[in-house]
Design brief:
The chain contains four helices and 22 strands. It is mainly β. The N terminus is likely disordered.
């Protein structure tokens, strides 16, 4: 709330720039604000003192005594550091994209004074910082609208479109994807028939029990991107180009979403939305741009239970000396299967020194050539 005419109090500026409020505020408890400009001057009628932004405590004299925060703020000083800089614009963009851990002074961020903090405010702030003509003073006031030119019947008939032409509608489309559990699938968001925009904020929703957003890859076709830094549903995509002198007219892919499929059950829709009332899509004239929305869907393929197959079998052998000219020959065949499992088959035979021959190990015939009492010259599967 802004302190204005409904105030019966004195403002005392102390040494060092602190502020004391003496009197009554005819309002209910809550957070209250005094507006100051970038030089620290009060913007309300009747105030002329210079103050520094900061918090104070004040007791309201009413039926009950409550404490409130009274804060002096500068329009555009989103992070309350006493200055209006590019940092404020960046922080505001991240807040609009719902970045985790980003907080703002919402009263200071409402730089067009309409009581809401939207993409329009971030655009106005960027133009203010870029010293655009007409944006020098905050809060910004939209100039009076010029009445639209009436199109004559002759002008309409002079249009290159014929009466039976089909008109394409600007649309935001999400592609479909199909995959198996554990796979990463790709979904593209594209614009079609884009009439030109400088900023857009989209909401993305999906079923987190079925798919997980693994990565977001911006295509670089819509300028500065401030997509949310935490991958969870709902997720926010944001492009903000308030200082751009031209619209972005790209039609085609603008961002790619990578999803991991988590569940074998029915797939998940990936829905997109934007707030047309609060100007989530704007053109260079700060007018809202309307798009048709077409959602996407992630389908899950059934997992086939392929039969487990033998991949390979590898024999190994060792010799251990026994009494006289006898040795024990131990042969092991290790089988490896397509599911990654292994199986070992082992047989031990009594042989003479320097013996060579073929031996039955399970279903395998293994040839082994020994030397002396402890050496293996050759060892391989015959069949």
């Amino acid at each position: 709330m802004i302190i204005g005419g409904d105030v019966d109090c004195n403002v005392i500026v102390n040494t060092g720039g602190t502020v004391t409020i003496d009197g009554k505020l005819k309002v209910e408890s809550g957070d209250f604000y005094i507006m100051v400009d970038e030089q620290g001057l009060f913007k309300q009628d009747g105030f002329s003192s210079v103050i520094k932004p900061g918090y104070i405590e004040y007791t309201i004299d009413g039926t009950s005594t409550v404490w409130v925060k009274l804060k002096a703020f500068i329009y555009g000083d989103v992070n309350d550091d006493g200055r209006v800089t590019l940092l404020d614009s960046t922080i505001l963009a991240r807040w609009l994209a719902m970045w985790e851990g980003v907080e703002i002074n919402e009263a200071a961020a409402d730089v067009n004074g309409d009581g809401r903090v939207t993409l329009l405010d971030q655009t106005v702030l960027r133009r203010h910082l870029a010293m655009w003509e007409g944006y020098e003073i905050l809060p910004w006031q939209r100039p009076p609208q010029v009445s639209p030119v009436q199109v004559s019947a002759f002008m309409a008939l002079s249009s290159p479109f014929m009466l039976n032409d089909t008109f394409s509608v600007p649309a935001i489309n999400v592609s479909n994807a199909t995959g198996k559990v554990g796979e990463i699938v790709e979904m593209r968001i594209e614009l079609s028939e884009n009439p030109g925009i400088i900023g857009m904020r989209l909401g993305i929703e999906y079923d987190e029990s079925k798919i997980r957003l693994a990565d977001v890859i911006d295509g670089g076709n819509l300028g500065e991107a401030y997509h949310r830094n935490v991958y969870s549903s709902p997720y926010t995509l944001l492009w903000a180009n308030g200082a751009s002198a031209t619209n972005f007219n790209h039609s085609g892919d603008v961002v790619t979403l990578l999803f991991e499929i988590l569940s074998e059950t029915a797939g998940s829709p990936v829905t997109i939305s934007y707030d047309a009332v609060n100007g989530d899509v704007l053109d260079i004239d700060l007018k809202p741009v309307n798009f048709e929305m077409n959602d996407g869907f992630v389908s899950t393929l059934p997992v086939k239970n392929d039969p487990i197959k033998l991949v390979n079998a590898v024999p190994t052998a060792s010799v251990k000396k026994q009494n006289g000219n006898k040795n024990d020959l131990t042969i092991t065949v290790t089988e490896t299967y397509s599911d990654g499992s292994t199986n070992k088959i082992t047989e031990t035979f009594s042989i003479n020194n320097n013996a060579a021959g073929s031996y039955q190990v399970g279903t395998y015939i293994v040839y082994v050539d020994t030397k002396g009492n402890d050496q293996i010259r050759q060892c391989y599967i015959v069949k």
